[in-house]
Amino acid sequence: MHKAAHIITIFIVMVLLCTCNNNSSNKHPRLCPDLVEIVARDTLRIATMTGPTSYFYYRDQEVGYDYELAQELADYLQLTPQYILARTHSEMLHMLQNGQVDIIAYNLAPLRIDKGLKFWPIHEKSQLVLLQHKSAQPISSVQNVADTKIHVARNSIFEQHIKNLNEETGGQIRIVLTPDTMREEELVADVNSKKIDATVIYKNTYQLFRKKYHNITTSAPISVSIATGWVTNTEAEELNSAIERWLATLKSKHINALRRKYFVRTIVPHRPFSAKLVNGTISPYDNLFRKYAPEINWDWRLLAALCYHESRFNPNTTSPMGACGLMQLVPVTAKRYGLTDENCYDPEESIKAGVQYIKFLNDKYAAISQTENRINFILASYNAGPAHIFDAKALARKYGQDDKNWQHVKKYLLLKSEPEYYNDPVCKYGYYRGTAAVNYVEKVIETYHVYEQIIK
Questions:
Q1: Which CATH number goes with the domain that contains 75?
Q2: Cα 20 from Cα 12, distance rounded (Å)
Q3: CA–CA distance, 423 with 409 (Å, rounded to integer)
Q4: Rg of the chain over all Cα atoms, to the nearest angstrom
Q5: pLDDT digit string (tens) for 412-443?
Q6: Does residue 444 share a domain with residue 329?
Q7: Tens digit of pLDDT for each residue in 217-256?
Q8: Terminal CA-to-CA distance of the chain, rounded, Å?
Q9: What is the value of pTM for the model shown?
């Protein structure tokens, strides 16, 4: 029945297309495809950008607030989603206006929307606030912004608002425009490290970033609450009608859960490692580590060290991104290795699946002959997903470094948070803050060496 309905829809599409062609023979061809053409190609083309809340790779899977909602829209329309990653807001808008994509799924603000485009307030309203280092003199009101050097990305809503504020306060603000490819988190990191004095940020994303960057604080708001959201072409009337129907099906409880997942997610701070033996064991699962470690030719204590940093040996833990159990495999990877919602918290099933994934990663890096060096790549990939590691390897090759040497590749993994590198054509997976993976490798190895000393 469903297949027959789909065939009828395609037939209607083709009739409508022919009608449109006959009626518009004396007009310029329409650049902006509507739903009939989208259904005919069976693909919804979605423009977005990588970012900590919109779209990013977490281990082996694509995730993000905009990504998840765009997936749901594509499912509602019974279309295959195709994501086209842009480097700037302007690039996304250009692609939409030229018919290269059907929709922008990203938190754009209405101030950036040209005539002929329709705005969808998918995101929660939020104020813009000034972000400073904690040690700086707080800016208590917009009137006290004079002589403050504020860095904002060119062609962004932040530039527009700070320029408006500058006019209101007599032109005393020292505005520094960064390249439009520079992401919000990069400027936050620069404030955190005192490289720059201040920047502008959405208040709701500050709640997320302050858990990672401990030296930042906000001062005066510089705007009322602003809605941000997606964009389509006004001409795409049928697509817009379908989006309205889809939005009507969304429950506020579901939207709020997604917002908590991506904007208020808990980032567990690192706790100093302290090995505590109970009856001469590292964990209650030592026998399972001993059983499965030989399948990957690992010392069982190394497998235990990885598990410790994944779950602290808590088999019932679930991460904000849905990784579950002792070995914290994300849903797409867990499913690949036989885990289900029912058994992913079972210690043996989790360890068994984790070992199979490590075996897969070991094969990925089979060309690296030195075992300890290869283990570094495997650990980094377990933490970040192999996509970002392969980007770093490609960068290492481009710059004449050894892409089989972890010390060389690590350098470029750390550089993948800078526009010059994550926008490089050899990088396929965009922005990534590599410190998490690099620190993870070091901590797992450090814990393993402790286990070596206390358990013989």
A1: 3.40.190.10
A2: 12
A3: 17
A4: 25
A5: 999 998 888 988 999 988 888 899 999 999 99
A6: yes
A7: 997 788 888 889 999 999 999 999 999 999 999 998 899 9
A8: 64
A9: 0.72
